[in-house]
Amino acid sequence: MSITEQAVAAEQNAQASLYDRLGGRPGIEAIVANIWENHVSNPLINKRYADSDPAEVKRLVTEMCCAGFGGPETYTGKDMITAHKGMNINDTEFVAVCDDVLKALDQNNVGQREKDEILCILYSLKNEVVYQ
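User: That's the sequence. What structure does it adopt?
Assistant: Structure tokens below.
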């Protein structure tokens, strides 16, 4: 690849949506599968998922991520406030979820730029999730 081709490729990647940079729906599904495994293995939060339908949780998280990261999918789940109301999620649990997501991103060789963007998105939702 020539230097010009490399520059064009780098510019296209810089302008690509987070959805595309993560590999579209298949890439996001792989990440979500790892997030699920990390959550159910994490003693700080695994009890929160004990009575959950794994397929349904993964479907909704995949939809939410795909839609939120610039993909064509539509999120069909509840808004974050409604989904988490009455759960009394605390800061420790929120951080545990974030840690599990970051671990899943590492498991899928996601770049630092994308990890930073996703962490910003997670923290933008914190007030809608913690102590609702």
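The mean pLDDT is 93.
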